[in-house]
Amino acid sequence: MCRMPQEPVRERRVGSQVQREVMQLILDRRLRPGALLPTEAELMEELGVSRNSVREALKALQALDIVEIRHGYGTYVGQASLTPLADGLTFRTLVQLADDTRALEEILQVREVLEEGLVRRVAVLLTDEELSQLEALVRKMEEAADAGGAFPELDREFHETLYRSLGNELVPQLLGAFWNVFNRVAGVRGWARDPAPDVTVSRHRDIVTALRARDVEGAQRAMADHFRGIEARSGQESRGVG
Amino acid sequence: MCRMPQEPVRERRVGSQVQREVMQLILDRRLRPGALLPTEAELMEELGVSRNSVREALKALQALDIVEIRHGYGTYVGQASLTPLADGLTFRTLVQLADDTRALEEILQVREVLEEGLVRRVAVLLTDEELSQLEALVRKMEEAADAGGAFPELDREFHETLYRSLGNELVPQLLGAFWNVFNRVAGVRGWARDPAPDVTVSRHRDIVTALRARDVEGAQRAMADHFRGIEARSGQESRGVG
DNA sequence: ACGAATTTGTCCGTATGTATT
DNA sequence: CAATACATACGGACAAATTCG
């Protein structure tokens, strides 16, 4: 009877009706990403609601990257990217980070499982050109490491190039979202710097070497070693002094 | 026209700014999921913006499940679940489905890579009790199949139980999101029915049998076969008549 | 059981900034 | 540069939902 006010009931998500109607409108009219949506005034009339309700619905859809609002011009159909996933995971990780680093380790484990499985599949798909691109990226990493700097963008590009031959657009987006969360949170914590860039470079080189030899098992092992390195970096810090 | 020079120019994107400020407020005050947020009136005053701006920001955060709004009571810190991912992926898949089923196949491939890797890891972690639970679920599936019905909930529970010993909460949420997208879209297309439930049951039984024998390779093979079955189901339909 | 207080939901009107033409 | 169309923001008012005395 007297329910604790501090505990919200987990009721089924009612959601905004207007929100769903706008989504349905996009689907019904076969609008593609980039297409222009009706203006707020038109949506007011078509859906029979006020401007405020339309705006709140559009704001919610914008947060999901389902629509894209351009100030002074109009509203477009969005790309429905994984930006909301990255935003939500970042927030959740930061909230939980006050207690422990579990959320971060969970993300890392998912990345590891994904990439170990993926590297096996691309091992037989990669073209010579792609292998050359990967080797070039490793050389660039080496130069950056010799200069004493970090190379987050090169790392990102490496993994993106690695899985291009799959032809699966969801894969780089998903990995990119995880990568973003990890780096954003790491930046807040202060342990964004790679303590041993040269080791990281050789991990990447090992992966390419195994792939060049079409050594599926070796590529998976190299990828696993790569993640062991990342785990050691974050694990060492989480047990260190605050 | 006559803009006062000493007055600081108003921030460009107040909307997303308020959004970030609310998130920062949650982090600064160490609010946990379920905690009550300041009321809209209080946020207006604290952030120095109008109520509409506050509401639009809260609506956007609600779409990301970062806050949870209850009419007539208040606003809570949300769970930051993967509901936005499921919503976004569902929308993207539906939009693209007018052309092809590529988005759906991409999701399936990610699920497959994930589950093949995960089943290897749980093979050495599963307790006898969890194995018994899995066997019980397979028996229930068999009963449902004999009765001629489908068993989407049993399938979902099977995969959830399978990875419980990992202790990774992100894994079931991620797989659940993918599963939701797949089933929601499948429902729209009309090919939700499993044409051969008995085959699906035996795929699951094969997985449990291999796991009971602690046969890592066999478990992965069984999982791969399981997904071959799902691919065959959807692939056959996508090449069939409209 | 009922009403008051609180809080969110919706609407209207108006003024301003911004991009396109 | 001027005009236009559009999104952005503010303030006020009332309705609906929830809680609690």
UniProtKB/TrEMBL annotation, chains A, B:
Domain HTH gntR-type span(s) in chain numbering: 12-80
Keywords linked to the UniProt accession: DNA-binding, Transcription, Transcription regulation
Transport found in the keyword field: no
Gene3D superfamilies the UniProt entry points to: GntR ligand-binding domain-like (1.20.120.530), Winged helix-like DNA-binding domain superfamily/Winged helix DNA-binding domain (1.10.10.10)
InterPro entries: GntR_C, TF_FadR/GntR_C, Tscrpt_reg_HTH_GntR, WH-like_DNA-bd_sf, WH_DNA-bd_sf
Residues of the signal peptide: none
Record CDD domains: WHTH_GntR
PANTHER family for this protein: TRANSCRIPTIONAL REGULATOR, GNTR FAMILY (PTHR43537), UXU OPERON TRANSCRIPTIONAL REGULATOR (PTHR43537:SF5)
Highest rank taxon of the organism: Bacteria
UniProt name for this protein: FadR family transcriptional regulator
The organism's taxonomic lineage, starting at the top: Bacteria, Bacillati, Actinomycetota, Actinomycetes, Kitasatosporales
Tagged with keyword Transcription: yes
Native source organism of the sequence: Streptomyces durmitorensis
Pfam families named in the record: FCD (PF07729), GntR (PF00392)
